[in-house]
Amino acid sequence: MVDQNSSSSWLKCLNNMSSMVMRNDHGGVTVEVGGEEGYAVRNARKKELVEVPWKGAPTMAHLFEQSCEQFNHNPFLGTRKLLQKEFVQSSDGRRFEKVHLGDYEWKTYGEVFACVCNFGSGIIKLGHSVDSRVAIFSDTRAEWLIALQGCFRQNVTVVTIYATLGEDALVHSLNETEVSTLICESKLLKKLNAIRSRLVSIQNVIYLEDDNSDEDAFSGSLSNWTIASFSEVEKLGKENPVEPNLPSKNAIAVIMYTSGSTGLPKGVMITHGNMVATTAAVMTVIPNLGSKDVYMAYLPLAHVFEMAAESVMLTAGCAIGYSSILTLTDSSSKIKKGTRGDANVLKPTLLAAVPAIIDRIRDGVVKKVEDRGGLVKNLFHFAYQRRLTAVKGSWLGAWGLEKLVWETIVFKKIRAALGGKLRYMLCGGAPLSKDSQNFINICMGVTIGQAYGLTETFAGATFSEWYDHKVGRVGPPLPCSYIKLVSWEEGGYLTSDKPMPRGEIVVGGFSVTAGYFKNQEKTDEVFKVDEHGMRWFYTGDIGQCHPDGCLEIIDRKKDIVKLQHGEYVSLGKVEAALSSCDYVDNIMVYADPFYNYCVALVVACNHSLEKWAQQAGIEYKDFPDMCNKQETVTEVLRSISKVAKATKLVKSEIPAKIKLLPDPWTPESGLVTNALKIKREQLKAKFKDDLQNLYV
After folding, report:
1. Strand residue runs (E) in 109-199
2. Which one of 228, 593, 638, 696 is at 20 to 30 Å from 385 when CA atoms are compared?
3. How far apart (Å, rounded) are the C-alpha atoms in residues 35 and 194?
């Protein structure tokens, strides 16, 4: 028998939640601001822009010290211990490293603060001048964050460099910023040694010890520089403490080099005030964020998305467990058989991801389901469609008894792949497809929040509300920023458009950075200061604003090409639509303005195509041979056209010809950024002949 009081309370709770969704103090509202005329929106929660999370924390150095004092005994930074590594050889002769990892070992907030103080003192005692810069050239790990905060404590500007950056870009970044102290992983010292004759300002090199590297990786070859290990610098600082030299809010905290889709990377000057403002704003958006949360860190800390995320976590007192994309799950490529992946050990409650990672998670789940076949496959697809129909039907359709039943029977095992305790996932860095967003919401049983931001705004632009299940949107402005749409008449996007205003997205507020390092011309081109002294950044992205003040990214100015007969093709829009094709692992659409159709480079999905070839009776020597077969090209083109029509692309937007490529595009190849966005110019250069042949 149902308890009427309990039932009444449950209904009352649902009604309260429903009414909360309909309240007008969430989302965005229009606002009058200075600068160029346009359609401007602010966050509905705050009438004034948020600048700090609390009084007395104008910089990241102040904020970090206060957070460590508040959460002194709480676990902060965790790293898994390497127990064993081995190499296995595949049938084609390639060698792959496999690791056996133990549990996470933790440092508390108090212990990390002591490490930060010691490291900050140590770099000064090593001979680093506070008037020069430190660069960090490393994959994400606990020492990365400790080094960053140690530099902040001594008012030293940090230059961030991707560990996958090519030699020319690395030399450019280090020389342009006149870095005198470089912090890098020991495995990267050989790469550094290869270019040392081209580096003009380096004096000190601090290497991060790594149980997973050869002991002699750093020996002998860097004698013209002062060389010290990370632990030696910490010890030096502990024995010779230096008083902190805390920065001001306008001091440059970080010069962050973008991975760059064209040419050499640009260094964005990020102030302490920018970092604190974004951190304070995000704190107001993620529900129930606090010291009980565990965050899994695996994205590059040299990327603004991860640095902003970890800044938020340390402010809220969360635990941060470090991982990598190669060890994330039980089935990750570097995990030894029988060893649990990082997520299964850490059991995070919070996770940040870029769309490419989410697409991989989705593809991995679908592959396992398809391989099981039979009842498992049928039950999964039935449950998924039931949940999808419920979610699309209404906000309350996402809740209820049926949700509980399907999650228990079908989706619980899927959630276990990421530890089983995930409650919130944040996606940024690029547009997330509607299919992937629905998939994570349903299969992982968690809210996936979309955020929009850029290095030039320290990731602080928009952030979706936790209850918003509508797909394709990136939320209202963060409370630290204004969003303005400015008409772009040439592209046909106007703020007067109906049913929603459209235009170039311009971000204003406390998160907008100081500009590009030693590049005043480019700074003046895209950064503007209005009559009230507020800074605005012109993003080049095209958006439309929904009636509730939420932003949707619909295009990008640089990605629009006008074809021979006058039709416009938005390359990014087409790529986003076609990426959901089962045969497509990655895609770059190309349009020559002298023709009336577009073409595409397609990185083929190995698993899906091999399954098709087996069913179709196609014989082939290896995967590259399969990709070269006309039958394969025809099948992929047929599938792409089907997806294109389903997503309502017009004829001029559907690739007429494609080139199938067997090898994936990776950051190491220089063909995609560290956020896995394609580098269009590099791809066009590398596959120039292939693209020309598609127009023959």
Report:
1. 133-137, 158-161, 179-185
2. 638
3. 48
Lookup result for tokens 């966050």: 43
DSSP string spanning 294-348?
Answer: EEEE-S-TTSHHHHHHHHHHHHHT-EEEE--TTTSSTTSTTBPTTPPPHHHHH--
φ/ψ of residue 680, rounded to 5: -60, -45
Residues sharing a CB contact under 8 Å with residue 76, sequence separation 6 or more, in sequence order: 68, 106, 107, 108, 109, 111, 112, 314, 319, 320
Distance of alpha carbon 102 from alpha carbon 203, whole angstroms: 37
Please answer whether residues 571 and 591 qualify as being in contact, where contact means their C-beta atoms are separated by less than 8 angstroms: yes
pLDDT at residue 63 in the model: 98
- 359 has which bridge partners? none
H or E segment and range at residue 529: strand 527-529
- By the 8 A CB rule, do 174 and 267 touch? no
Distance CA 648, CA 16 (A): 38
pLDDT at residue 445 in the model: 80
Which residues lie closer than 8 Å to 81 by C-beta, 6 or more apart? 101, 102, 103, 105
- Cβ–Cβ contacts within 10 Å for residue 96, how many? 11
Backbone dihedral region for residue 137 (phi beyond 0: left; psi -120 to 50: alpha; all else: beta): beta
Contact status, residue 204 vs residue 126, Cβ threshold 8 Å: yes
Instruction: Judge residue 326's burial from the number of C-beta atoms within 10 Å of its C-beta, 0-12 exposed, 13-18 middle, 19 or more buried.
Output: middle
Strand partners, 661: 603
To the nearest 10°, report the CA torsion of 439, 445, 449, 450: -10
427 is written with which tokens? 């996606």
Q: Which residues in 90-150 belong to E strands, given as ranges?
A: 95-108, 133-137
What DSSP state is assigned to residue 407?
Answer: I
Element at 224 (helix H, strand E): none
Q: What's the longest Cα–Cα distance across the chain?
A: 82
**Residues 79, 111: contact at Cβ < 8 Å?**
no
- Residue-wise pLDDT tens digits, 238-270: 999 999 999 999 999 999 987 654 567 789 999
Is 606 in a helix, a strand, or coil?
A: helix
Terminal C-alpha separation, the chain: 74
What angle do helix axes 272-283 and 60-70 make, rounded to 10 degrees?
Answer: 40
The model's pTM: 0.84
Alpha helices in 490-591 (DSSP H): 520-526, 571-578
Domains and CATH numbers, the chain: 563-694 (3.30.300.30)
- The structure tokens listed for 402 are 């049926």
Residue the block writes with tokens 């190995």? 606
Residue ranges of the chain whose pLDDT lies below 50: 1-24, 213-220, 261, 395-397
Q: What six digits make up the tokens of 75?
A: 């676990």
Question: How far is residue 543 from each of residues 27, 222, 506, measured CA to CA in Å?
Answer: 16, 50, 10
The tokens for 382 are: 């039935």
- pLDDT score for 536: 98
Torsions phi, psi for 302 (to 5 deg): -75, -5
